């Protein structure tokens, strides 16, 4: 890899660690590349699809002229390994907020779980979580929610291409889900819980594919602890 190759266009597949924002990962990588290859201050770099801090997995970073590929990659279908916990909910639909609204799940059978999961395959409507980066009147929804303001999210259409490799170990359920751009897996977890009648939230999320790019080809070598966030 050379500075000229990076400026001409390069795609990196990163394995984003837990509790990192996508912005932090890109900034850390930008810092390291500029330092090692003596790149110009305005070197172009950006990611092709945000991962929540509580999610891990495939984060695609485009450099140089390949930043023009970002919209195309963002539009590609995604795949996630997903784990949810049923019988309880959280306000954020994931592990950011504490558990609330515990309910008994003794009556829930594996057959019923498979039946409910099947209902979500195809085109569906879902409301994004209030703890999301969507802007409402110019402000991020998560900022409004964390400030205690009431947030009303509008439903939007999305497509679940498949739910497969389902494993059930009550109260945990895991599966692979393939979906279109703009799908919120946290909302999917919440909606599955509502359909089951006992609530649910997302406990783990790992992005495994974006289009033809796969997590097996990703690396975390640019996200080691050689540089601190304070250095960025």
Write the layout of secondary structure elements.
Elements: H1 3-8, E1 10-16, H2 22-37, E2 45-47, E3 56-63, H3 70-74, E4 78-86, H4 110-119, E5 122-126, E6 135-136, E7 139-140, H5 141-146, E8 156-169, E9 172-179, H6 185-196, E10 200-210, E11 213-214
Parallel strand pairs: 3-10
Antiparallel strand pairs: 1-3, 2-3, 4-9, 4-10, 5-8, 6-7, 8-9, 10-11
Describe the 3D structure.
The chain has about 230 residues and is an alpha+beta fold. The protein is about 25% helix and about 30% strand. The strands form two sheets. Strands 1, 2, 3, 4, 5, 8, 9, 10 and 11 form a nine-stranded mixed β-sheet that branches. The model is unreliable at about 225-230 (pLDDT under 50).
Form type: globular
Taking all residues together, what is the mean pLDDT?
Answer: 87
Structural class: alpha+beta
Report the order of strands and helices.
HEHEEHEHEEEHEEHEE
For the record, give the distance between the C-alpha atoms at the N and C termini, rounded to a whole number. Answer: 22 Å
The fraction of residues assigned to DSSP E strands is 25-35%
Please summarize the sheet with the most strands.
9 strands, mixed
Rg for CA atoms: 19 Å
Helix content: 10-25%
Q: Figure out the total of helices.
A: 6
| Counted beta strands | 11
Indicate the low-confidence ranges by residue numbers. Answer: 225-232
Summarize the structure.
The protein is of the alpha+beta class and 232 residues long. The chain has helices spanning 3-8, 22-37, 70-74, 110-119, 141-146, 185-196; strands at 10-16, 45-47, 56-63, 78-86, 122-126, 135-136, 139-140, 156-169, 172-179, 200-210, 213-214.
